[in-house]
Amino acid sequence: MSQFDSLRSESPFQNKGQSGRILTNEELEKLQRDQTLVSDFKQNKLEKEAQKNWDLFYKRNTTKFFKDRHWTTREFEELKACRKFDAQRLVLLEAGCGVGNCIFPLLAEDANIFVYACDFSPRAVEFVQKNPLFCSERCKVFQCDLTTEDLQANIQADSVDVATLIFVLSAIHPDKMRLTLENIYRVLKPGGIVLFRDYGLYDHAMLRFKSGNKLGENFYVRQDGTRSFFFSRELLAELFTGVGFQSLVNEYVMRETVNKKEGLCVPRVFLQSKFRKPD
Ligand SMILES: C[S@@+](CC[C@H](N)C(=O)[O-])C[C@H]1O[C@@H](n2cnc3c(N)ncnc32)[C@H](O)[C@@H]1O
């Protein structure tokens, strides 16, 4: 992962909308030139070692890599309105929770939520449990590979109000994204919502990959063996609706990120979406 993905200072200007980033001819040519794919042997190895590579990521970076994600508390404001009565306890699932940068701000802000959080990295799960804000009465954290292990081993079917999927689906092989969404679908209540945010097509991070890192269309591997997919809104909508979700919001968020260390201003593209399991 690069410094562009880690601690950064963001300018307040962002645009949201249906149309993605338009590349210059030079940028398009750069992407088109890069057609060499990583060998099948190496691709299989990366898939087998996905869990190990993320666990090593947390061994190296501990809890210091990602910032707390306060945008979820802003977005979650709207979702709190889905309570049928004021005292209703909302049940959340943070799928691929990392060290808890999403869940701890939410737990701090709303006393009346219960959070299930899971990740396939044992170290990440341990960091969540060791966080001073962790409270076993309000949070259950467990290890789970979303692509192979049924969430129902830890969560009742049809019981979750809101699932968050934040920069996680991009780390999963495209062939296994559907299985991941089906897994989440089963534990969501009818009417339950998925909050999604992840890398968008032509994000700056995608254009920075050097030749030799391409795994497939819009799919790349970083130096540390973790992988990243870059989503178009069309592909994401197809994935979610294919599993049975209804699309509520599905838009690009474009913002300029200032990298102070390098004195650069870079265009970031994210996809921010909400999908609903029908009643
Ligand atoms: C970029 S981090 C995001 C963490 C957290 N959602 C956040 O916003 O800070 C991606 C996380 O997805 C987890 N992950 C990737 N593939 C997974 C899988 N198949 N099952 C469970 N977790 C996975 C990784 O271990 C990592 O913690």
TrEMBL record:
GO terms for molecular function: tRNA (cytidine-3-)-methyltransferase activity. GO terms for biological process: tRNA methylation. One of its GO terms (cellular component) is nucleus. It holds the Pfam family Methyltransf_12. Its main location: cytoplasm. Residues 93-194 form the Methyltransferase type domain. InterPro entries: Methyltransf_12, METTL2/6/8-like, SAM-dependent_MTases_sf. It catalyses: cytidine(32) in tRNA(Ser) + S-adenosyl-L-methionine = N(3)-methylcytidine(32) in tRNA(Ser) + S-adenosyl-L-homocysteine + H(+). Residues 1-22 are annotated as: Disordered. It is found in: Cytoplasm; Nucleus. Its EC number is 2.1.1.-. S-adenosyl-L-methionine-dependent methyltransferase that mediates N(3)-methylcytidine modification of residue 32 of the tRNA anticodon loop of tRNA(Ser), including tRNA(Ser)(UGA) and tRNA(Ser)(GCU). Interaction with SARS1/SerRS is required for N(3)-methylcytidine methylation. Monomer. Interacts with SARS1/SerRS; interaction is mediated via tRNA(Ser) and is required for N(3)-methylcytidine methylation. This is tRNA N(3)-cytidine methyltransferase. It comes from Anguilla anguilla (European freshwater eel).
